[in-house]
């Protein structure tokens, strides 16, 4: 059985309160008022 490695669960901060979850964020990158989908859109100057 694998041991839990999430520090919030190990430290008993949220282990009994919340269902298991993945920490993630939504990230949007804009350059010159244009949304960048991936780094290949940047051209060397």
UniProtKB/TrEMBL annotation:
Gene3D superfamilies referenced in this protein's UniProt entry, alphabetically: PEBP-like
Top-level division of the source organism's lineage: Eukaryota
Name under which the protein is recorded: Flowering locus T-like protein
Higher taxonomy: Eukaryota, Viridiplantae, Streptophyta, Embryophyta, Tracheophyta
């Amino acid at each position: 059985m694998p041991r839990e490695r999430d520090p919030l669960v190990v430290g008993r901060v949220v282990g009994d309160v919340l269902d298991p979850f993945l920490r993630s964020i939504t990230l949007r990158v804009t350059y010159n008022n244009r949304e960048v989908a991936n780094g290949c859109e940047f051209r060397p100057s």
